[in-house]
Structure formats: structure tokens, C-alpha cells
Amino acid sequence: MASHLTLLAGPDALRLIRERGLRGDDVDVVPGASGGPKWLVLAGLDRALFAGLFQNRSRPLHLIGSSIGSWRLACMAQKDPVLALRRFEAAYIDQRYPPKPTPTQVSETCERILDALLGEDGEAEILDHPWARLHVVTALCRGAVGMEGPGAQLFGLVLCALGNLVSRRTLGLHMERVIFHTAGDTSPFTGLNDLPSTHLPLTRENLRLALLASGSIPLLFSGVRIPGAPAGVFRDGGVVDYHLDLDFGPGTGLVLYPHFYPYVVPGWFDKSLRWRRARPQNFRRALLIAPSPELVARLPGGRIPDRVDFERMKDAERMRAWNQVVSESERMGDALHELMATGRLAEHVRPL
């Protein structure tokens, strides 16, 4: 069973896990990465973690995600996270589009998925949750990146990519990280200074729009304007924080990171820059849990799903494949439960 998991830990996390295993009360932060359909390989692990690990918790647990990661964590911040995740899975897998859909059509479909994810009471449950503190990462775009015309937007993205080759900090010339959250003064992320950053409260008026903005991929989705927030167009938070290479704040607790890869890419423009990976100091207290190569080999086509599946497969074929991925993902949750129940988790953790 353990062969279905890749377990990697920073030095502080490794020391804590060797002392007392993985305990829900020892976790301070759960990040959720961008990645579109890749999240489906984590579905079973997500359900296993939030069905049991954090039961009877009272102190705050900070959930921070960009793009699809923020949507997963929005499920986990609801009263019944497993039911919310099931609603999200079904609606996400069922999405379908005409050939060459417009950004408006894509955004409308994703609004319907978001409606299913939140259900009737999801917004209130997130805002009033007794201990889950949701942080939604978005990108407030300036200049050409903030324009809706595809030519201007593409030009702006090219400028971002060229500057990013030199330094991630150049992204601050084109966009600002805006984090909407329910943590009030307790957020551990208010000290972020690697990029221009603004922190705003999540409210009934902006929660849906913030989540929609966080998943609004440039060129594919329409930009989002959020009343009460700074003026401008908000887009996918993954553009600035793709896999969340962040300072996770003060504290000695774990950063528990379910992730579809055994490595972390800082920003959207870093995907092809193999020399740019996460800063080790940000992950000293992180436990990263990813699918093993053996589990990935069991997936349709031997790979984790991605957005290209919409072009590569017909809808019926894609839905069958994605449902199979979700089914296989249960092995990750089962394996984690077994390692925790037998007290053998530390034996299978390798240094990150």
C-alpha cells in the first residue's frame, strides 16, 4: 500500500514526524496548488485527510490555494468536506465545451461548477467555519495583461515571461498578488514581500468572485472584477503562485501539502524553467504527499490528467478516464491511513 505514495519532508517536519507521527493537531497550514485537472489524482487523498485527520480540531488551520487549489480547499472549509468534494468532482468531470470555446463560455461553465461545489450553504459555512481559515490567491493585473483582447493580453503575458526569465520579482511590474481570506488578523501570510501583496477579507459579497478569479486562466477565461476590491481585472492566482513557494509564516507546526508532483514550481511562467524550483527554507516544516510513480503508471495513459485532455479526447472518453483517475486516487488515501494506523509513516518519508 505504501508504494502508492511519495512522502517527502523538510528537516523540521521530518524531525516532528519521527517523534510522534502525523497528527492533525500538529498541522498549521495546508496549501493547494494550481494545475487544472491534475487535482483529480488527489481526490481520494483529500477525502481521507479531511474526513478524519482534523476531527475535533479547535485551533485555526490555514488553507491557502491558488486556482484549482483554492477550489479544493473551499470544499475542505465546508461543514461536510467529503460531500463538497464529491459535488465538485462530479461537476468538474462533467464539464464539456464546443470546439474552440470563447472565454465567456468557459467562464460560464466554471460558474456552474462553482455553484455545485458550494451547494446551498457552502458560502456561509466557509465564512463561519470554527477553525478552517481559507485564503484564496488571485492576481490583480495591470496594463496589457489586464486587457480582454487576446492580442493585447498575449503581448502582456510575453512581457511577463521575458521579465520572469531574469527574476520572479519582475512580475510585480504587471500584477499584484491579492489574497482574500477569512483569517482576519491571524493570517500567517501578511508578511509576504517577494511580490507586491494585498490582503482582503472574504465576505458574502466577494467569496464566489474571488474563487472564480483565482481559477480564471489568462486567454482561456474572462477576467473578473470584484466590487469592494482594488479596481482592475483579477485573474488566475496560479500566474503568480503556481505551486505556492511561499513563506508559510511563523510557527513550529507542519505544512501538510497534498500535491500531484514531488517538486514545487514557484510561478506559472516557471513551468519550463527547470532550474527554478522551490526555496528550501520555505519547506523546512513541510510534508509533501504525492502519488508514487507506480500509482501514476496505473492511470489512463500512465499519466496525470491535464487540460490537453479536452483536445486529445472526446467527452465520453475523457470522462471515463477522469473517473478512473478518481477511483485510483483512493489508493493514496488508503495507503496514508494504513501508515498512520500502523505507526510506520516515518519509515517511508524521505528528505525533501
TrEMBL record:
Q: Which UniProt keywords apply?
A: Lipid metabolism
Pfam family for this entry, one: Patatin
Its domain of life reads Bacteria
Q: From its record, what is one biological process in GO terms?
A: lipid metabolic process
Q: Which residues cross the membrane?
A: none
Domain named PNPLA: residues: 35-241
Looking up SUPFAM superfamilies in the UniProt record yields: FabD/lysophospholipase-like
Protein name as catalogued: PNPLA domain-containing protein
> What organism does this protein naturally occur in?
Myxococcus xanthus (strain DK1622)
